[in-house]
Design a protein that fits this description.
With about 280 residues, this protein is an alpha+beta fold. The protein has ten helices and eleven strands.
């Protein structure tokens, strides 16, 4: 049975933010749980799977999961190492104002139509800023509330997020590829190796992955690595070592990729997130 810890980072009338860490001890589907509130969940470390009826969702740092109040689900951990995520619950009146109408189920009770959306790098950076700032008690309440609302708006925006649309078979194929990538972020996978693990041809894999996620497989892997870098920036003084540990060929490769995605170099992000003193 998996063990997890929950830390309340912020609680106001507008938003509640929790940091949830799970050791991933339960490899198979756990007991059914029930969401007591509607929330947006942002994995930032590791991977898990959420099962809602026959709908299976791979939860990793490129995705934001939508939990509807009173909805039953099960969790499993196909990959060792556990996971960590930010659970963000917004006042429902504000959530109705923020969520595009076509993403919401019709009816009296508020609920989302889909189980997940792929978020962009700027949303990932907002998750990291919120977590680091609140964990270190350097983010003021007004700042954190504003960042949280910006994050929700970006995570639900049609231009800044992506809802995968595909047959169940194609989605499962893509999910298997995601699990392969997540099993070893630092490994320099070849296309043939991933395709072999998934059980399809390299050509078919690249075509289906692009169709489902609207981004190439190699870029998806890059963003997983960079999201892990956001998580680890507070633990590394030597940024060259961090880049190499995540599979980048050099510090310049790591720094350039990071800046292209997040608009800052790793060192600049450390300073803006107050993870490092200004020199």
């Amino acid at each position: 049975m998996s063990q997890f810890s929950t830390a309340l980072l912020l609680q106001t009338k507008t938003v509640a933010i929790r940091d949830i860490v799970c050791d991933g001890g339960c490899r198979h589907k756990g007991d059914e749980e029930c969401a007591h509130k509607t929330s947006l969940v942002y994995p930032y470390r590791g991977v898990f799977m959420r099962h809602v009826g026959r709908n299976d969702t791979v939860a990793e740092a490129n995705q934001m999961l939508l939990f509807n109040a009173d909805q039953g689900y099960r969790i499993s951990h196909p990959i060792e190492g556990g996971d960590a995520c930010i659970d963000l619950a917004i006042d429902e009146t504000m959530l109705e104002e923020l969520a595009p109408k076509d993403q919401v189920q019709p009816g009296a009770a508020f609920s989302f139509r889909r189980q997940r959306r792929r978020i962009d790098p700027r949303a990932q950076a907002l998750v990291a800023l919120l977590r680091h700032g609140l964990r270190r008690n350097v983010a003021e309440t007004l700042e954190a509330e504003t960042l949280a609302l910006t994050l929700v708006r970006r995570s639900l925006g049609e231009r800044t997020s992506h809802a995968a649309g595909a047959s169940a078979g194609r989605q499962k194929l893509v999910d298997r590829a995601k699990l392969v990538l997540s099993s070893d972020l630092a490994r320099r996978w070849t296309l043939s190796e991933i395709a072999s693990e998934v059980g399809v041809s390299p050509v078919y894999l690249t075509q289906v992955f692009q169709q489902v996620e609207a981004t190439p497989l190699y870029r998806y892997q890059l963003r997983l690595r960079l999201a892990r870098a956001l998580d680890l920036l507070g633990q590394y003084e030597d940024l060259t070592a961090l880049g190499l540990d995540l599979g980048f060929s050099s510090h310049s490769h790591f720094s350039a990729s990071f800046k292209q995605s997040f608009g800052q170099t790793p060192a600049e992000f450390q300073r803006s997130a107050r993870l490092r003193r200004k020199s």
